[in-house]
Design brief:
The complex is a heterodimer of chains A (about 500) and B (about 475).
Chain A lengths: L7 H17 L5 H29 L8 E9 L4 E7 L1 H20 L8 H20 L3 H10 L1 H11 L4 H30 L4 H4 L6 H18 L8 H8 L2 H26 L1 H27 L4 H20 L4 H32 L15 H15 L5 H16 L1 H26 L16 H19 L2 H32 L1
Antiparallel strand pairs in A: 1-2
Chain B lengths: L6 H19 L5 H21 L3 E3 L4 E3 L1 H24 L10 H18 L3 H19 L6 H32 L4 H8 L7 H17 L8 H8 L2 H7 L2 H15 L6 H21 L7 H22 L2 H26 L2 E2 L2 E2 L9 H4 L1 H14 L6 H15 L3 H26 L12 H16 L4 H16 L1
The chains are: A mainly alpha (about 500), B mainly alpha (about 475).
């Protein structure tokens, strides 16, 4: 039943909660509690990460179906079960979540000074929810994890965020919840129609074409907010600016992927006819996101806002890739998601380094940092270039694949997507020049320190991953190659079928 | 005659009168002893309810079935929790520590149990009046407080009006159908010629009288004032057990005698439900008093529960019952938190008084945050499951307008719930509250555990609710 021989996914999902319980049980004065909570959270997340490597080692890339499947009956008479499993599309996102969590905890080591115990608890609960979202194989269970993310993230932004944190946290919560409740209705409609919420079964179920149309928009409401797509992206810059560094890292690194994951896991395979019919709409929204938000990013005076808008642009590219329905496009979208998960996380960490020292994200407050912070400048440069898709970095592979996929659909689509990428180079290099180069004239920057060993330890794995993905992408793309091939093939077959039934019903 | 079917009600009434006599004869302050006796009586009654066999007694006036058992256990649990909260609240200067209080609560409980077992419009009215009269008195129980007396009077006047409407409706129904018994009504109304206009008017009056009790729009006007004016443990009681009993009564009345006329009354229930959800979520936003906010919140929750009735299916009725279970526990838990809001021995009840609670009292803040997220319907907390089963029924019945309005108002509602979390966790602390009694900690912790871990064991509750719903639909 299970390649690992033990319920590895459930362990990875729920072990953080055990760590959370340990943290809750710590007693003593405030300093002791804080220090113990940090160490307990770090060790928990490291153990979870170590355990999740079992997935990396034991995963069989040749099998396009779900692996490591665990199933416990929960409410069998209603077609509900607790079912977990990963396929090529989801396995690397589980690993991304487990890898970024210890880095986040390490990045908040000294910065978070008040309510440390609650902070660490929130991060561990968040990890459970993230891993659960990517590995749930029951639609209702998926929804529970998907929406459960809101509670810890709301608290992380709201309690430990910047000056306008209340506004941002509530905006984040309400935007996401509005989309999610419509998704809930769609889940219920599918559940009522088919009598099951089992995802592997639903992937092979043919839903009526008209119903698919309604469901597509209900899914879109949720995933578009999460992704986020233009025009419902406005919560993201606010949330990023106010969130603490580690909150931004998780938000950009993992939470944004949930939207695209939703499209790939649910919209495309379950609603093939509707996806195909509304693909032009999605392309339009994707192109607008790429070009419009890139222009907006050019005008930003706040580093975090700039990177937030660049995330929207990158996710626009992912949307285009997903809805090309060809192997290159979808593989490119997946690669872009993974790469963005690492690169944008690293960029937010870079901003965090400066924020910890100067307590501002304003671009104009910096300049000439290369004189005092050479290591930092090198690392920041690597990630900036990875973000714009320089060959040899992870960003390049995803973008080129999406472009190839888009070119097969429509020349103009590829052209407009490409324009967005050029704008991306413009705003990233402009940012880099203003922060790092120039003459160091500001008095308060004269004494700024380069990276500490702890910070180097946070960045090192991300640097390695970025280069690894850029130089030898095969070791990542091999995970999803067979799953994507099967998905594309099935999509074509189902589409053909539903076209035939539509003609037949006339 | 099978009078033993009503044994739980009989025992509870006798015990209540015995406690009353004991309280009068006992020389010293008997309130604590009476409270404890009352809790014991509720427990004993619960056991008797579980042991009672199904059947019908008193010439069909009174019925015991899976549905009545489910509702009675929930009523008893809610009442016992509210009574425990009043123990934590008791304070010599604040009225509640008199031995009459538990006695009145017990009489109200007897009334509610009669309500959920009613199989005749007359029994229904008797139960309703018994529980209402006891509630009017406990609302005004803090007799030296102007607000409490005002709340009691308001509740009484409006409640009497609602009773009048109900009685008028009952007389119309009797006049046009010739019976007050649920079973013969069901038989008479099932006839193919359908309902006469007079009968429909009568049903509308009955619905108006009943809906007043669950404080759904447009019969909600009394709720915020009464909730705010009544002593907080009384508010906790008002917002749980009577709501359960009244909702159970509505379910039985609509599903059994008037079940064949569902097409005639469905639209009315839908409109009431939509209006309650919208008012409950929108009007709560501007509130500054947490008790008024809870009043609007309960109006909204009753709106959600009514969706299940509008769907009219077994899934819908089951959804209502599950919703009530979930609602009772999270509501009692929230009120435990509100009762703990005291400074220098005086209760405070502004939302701003909760500021910074996460730092002055992390445990209580954590519990309240769980209840707030649960009321907003965020998984995996129990409130989510309440909404899940309700919306499932709406989707299954194809009532998309109701479902979409429901989920969207739940987002609006989420705004004010998470605002409370924000006040507790983000705002700067004000002075700490007084140390809270162990009883309040116990209730808050118990309700919090139930709310958090409901998702692990929904099976028994769903199964019992399913059985209860099946009974109603025959």
């Amino acid at each position: 039943m299970n390649a690992a021989g033990f319920p590895v996914l459930s362990l990875v999902t729920f072990l953080p909660l055990v760590g959370g319980a340990v943290i809750l049980s710590i007693r003593g004065d405030e300093a002791t509690v804080a220090s113990n909570a940090r160490w307990a959270a770090l060790w928990t997340s490291l153990i979870v990460f170590g355990l999740s490597l079992v997935l990396w080692v034991e995963f069989n890339p040749a099998d396009p179906g779900f692996q490591f499947v665990e199933s416990v009956s929960w409410m069998p008479e209603y077609g509900l079960g607790y079912k977990m499993g990963v396929d090529g599309i989801s396995v690397l996102f589980v690993l991304l979540s487990t890898a970024l969590t210890p880095l986040c905890i390490l990045a908040s080591w000294e910065v978070i000074k008040r309510q440390v115990r609650e902070y660490m608890l929130a991060f561990l609960i968040l990890e459970t929810m993230m891993v659960g979202t990517f590995s749930a194989l029951d639609f209702v269970v998926f929804y529970m994890f998907f929406e459960g993310v809101l509670i810890p993230m709301y608290l992380i932004i709201g309690i430990w965020g910047g000056p306008r944190r209340v506004y941002s946290a509530i905006k984040f919560f309400l935007f996401t919840l509005t989309g999610s409740v419509l998704l809930l209705l769609a889940v219920l409609a599918i559940w009522v129609h088919t009598g099951t919420a089992d995802i592997p079964t639903l992937l092979h179920t043919r839903l009526p074409v008209v119903m698919q149309g309604w469901l597509f928009f209900a899914f879109l409401a949720s995933f578009a907010v999460k992704l986020p797509m233009w025009p419902v992206h406005t919560w993201l810059p606010d949330a990023h600016v106010e969130a603490p560094t580690a909150g931004s890292v998780i938000l950009a690194g993992v939470l944004l992927k949930m939207g695209a994951y939703g499209f790939l896991r649910f919209s495309v395979p379950m609603l093939p006819a509707a996806s195909a019919a509304f693909a032009p709409l999605m392309f339009a929204l994707g192109v607008i996101a790429v070009i419009y938000t890139s222009y907006v990013a050019l005008a930003q005076e706040d580093m975090k806002k700039l990177i937030a808008y660049s995330s929207v642009a990158h996710m626009g590219l992912v949307t285009i890739g997903v809805f090309t329905f060809n192997i290159q496009g979808i593989q490119g979208a997946l690669f872009q998601m993974l790469s963005h998960g690492i690169v944008s996380a690293a960029l937010f960490l870079c901003v965090g380094v400066l924020y910890d020292r100067m307590h501002t994200h304003e671009i104009a407050r910096f300049g000439g940092l290369v004189e005092r912070m050479p290591i930092y400048a090198a690392i920041f440069m690597l990630f900036s270039l990875a973000s714009v898709g320089l060959p040899g970095t992870s960003g390049f592979v995803g973008e080129i694949l999406v472009m190839i996929g888009a070119m097969q659909v429509n020349f103009w689509l590829a052209l407009l997507g490409g324009v967005g990428m050029i704008l991306g180079v413009a705003y990233m290099l402009y940012l880099y020049r203003r922060v790092i180069f120039g003459v160091l004239t500001k008095v308060d920057l004269k004494g700024i320190l380069d990276l500490s060993p702890r910070e180097v330890a946070v960045f090192a794995p991300l640097v390695v991953l970025t280069l690894w993905m850029g130089i030898y992408p095969q070791s990542f793309s091999s995970f999803w190659a067979s799953s994507v091939a099967q998905m594309v093939q099935q999509h074509t077959a189902m589409l053909h079928h539903s076209v035939l039934t539509t003609i037949a019903s006339r | 005659m099978n009078w033993t079917l009503a044994l739980p009600e009989i025992v509870l009434s006798v015990v209540a009168m015995a406690i009353l006599i004991f309280g009068v004869l006992y020389r010293r302050d008997a309130s604590f002893a009476c409270n404890m006796l009352a809790l014991g009586a509720l427990l004993l009654t619960a056991l008797l309810v579980l042991a009672a066999p199904p059947g019908s007694a008193y010439g069909g006036l009174f019925v015991v079935d899976a549905f009545s058992r489910f509702a009675k256990i929930l009523v008893l649990a809610g009442s016992a929790l509210a009574l425990m909260l009043s123990l934590g609240y008791s304070h010599p200067q604040q009225g509640l520590s008199r031995f009459e209080f538990p006695v009145l609560i017990l009489f109200a409980v007897v009334g509610m149990m009669v309500m959920v077992s009613a199989a005749n419009l007359m029994t229904l009215y008797l139960g309703l009046e018994l529980h209402s009269l006891a509630l009017y008195v406990v609302t005004a129980f803090d007799r030296d407080s102007l607000r409490s007396s005002e709340a009691g009077l308001k509740y009484f006047v409006l409640g009497a009006l609602a009773s009048g409407l109900l009685l008028y409706g009952i007389s119309l129904v009797y006049g046009f159908s010739g019976s007050t018994s649920f079973s013969s009504l069901a038989g008479a109304l099932g006839a193919p010629q359908g309902a006469s206009v007079g009968l429909v008017v009568g049903i509308v009056f009955v619905i108006a009288g009943l809906v007043f009790k669950v404080s759904a729009v447009p019969f909600h006007m009394w709720t915020p004032d009464v909730y705010e004016g009544a002593p907080t443990p009384v508010t906790a009681f008002l917002s749980t057990a009577p709501k359960v009993a009244a909702m159970a009564l509505i379910l039985r009345t609509m599903a059994t005698p008037f079940g064949h006329l569902a097409d005639d009354w469905r639209l009315l229930i839908e409109l009431i439900s939509i209006a309650s959800m919208i008012l409950g979520s929108v009007a709560a936003i501007g509130q500054t008093s947490i008790k008024r906010l809870m009043a609007y919140s309960s109006i909204g929750h009753m709106g959600y529960a009514l969706i299940g009735l509008a769907a009219g299916s077994a899934v819908g009725l089951r959804g209502v019952l599950i919703y009530l279970v979930v609602y009772v526990f999270m509501n009692v838990g929230t009120f435990a938190g509100i009762i703990a809001m005291r400074r220098q021995g005086r209760p405070v009840e502004q939302i701003s008084d909760l500021a910074g609670l996460a730092r002055t009292d992390p445990g209580l803040a954590f519990a309240l945050a769980i209840f707030m997220f649960s009321m907003a319907g965020i998984p995996p907390l129990s409130g989510f499951f309440g909404k899940l089963y309700i919306f499932l029924a709406a989707v299954q019945a194809g009532m998309w307008a109701l479902a979409v309005i429901g989920v969207l108002t739940s987002v609006v509602g989420a705004y004010y719930y998470i605002r409370i979390v924000k006040v507790m966790y983000i705002d700067e602390p004000v002075a700490a509250f007084d140390p809270r009694p162990a009883m309040i900690t116990l209730v808050a912790a118990g309700a919090g555990l139930f709310t958090t871990f409901f998702f692990l064991f929904p099976g028994p509750f769903v199964g019992a609710a399913q059985a209860a719903a099946q009974v109603l639909l025959g």
